[in-house]
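dumping this here before i forget
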Amino acid sequence: MTSITETYRLNFGRKVLNYYCNKALLKTIQAFLLLFFLNGCSHQIAFQDLDYNLVINKKYENIIVYMDKSTLTQTTPVREFKAGLAHRWNIQSGKMLKQVIDIEFPQMFNDYVFSSSIIERPWKENTLLLKMTMPEFRYRGASYFAVKISVFDSQSKLLEKQYQEEGAYKGTRVLWGGAWAMKSAIRQSSLDALKKIFKSIRKDLEILLEGVKLDSNIEHSNDNDSPADSIFDAGYEYYSPQDLEKTFVPSGDKD
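structure:
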């Protein structure tokens, strides 16, 4: 009887010991994982030494590009299993968008100005204001951008449109190259997506500007036959000055 009781106590003691040992081990693992993620490398990703040339047949007058500070500083943190979960990649999508703007528009317009502050009327003649926002950005092996533009002249809104593109998939490169390949993969995929978007933006602005120029140089009769019909056929809309007052001056950025 005594031996049975002792065996029972011994087994019970072992179970208690195993329980607390396992619990301690679990806490140790949790602490290690927490330390692993908190102390992992953090990488800031934007383009480096970005430059490229466009084939432009004609340069237009002047443009002011407005992008609010929240868009300009937009950053998306990403972790990628293939590159190591200890690493966090802070993709500066707003800065990337600004870097591409700084390359594209100076080649398309004679005078380009960028601002993240409120633009007050009036500005000089033959100048457009282009307000740009970025409703969405994500990275899942490829960069996806959604960019929205609103274009104004001195009196009205001429165009509002959103563009969405996904860059080339670079996940396979990251699988083989790990953390060393991640920066390059993000940059290449992001640039591919933005180049696609700006190609469409350039095309729409060319159609718009040619139509507006033609429309301003010709007197129209009352037969509703306007040289700018191609703009309407392309799905663009003109807005009244009243609409302009509601949407023209960006809000929420007063310093």
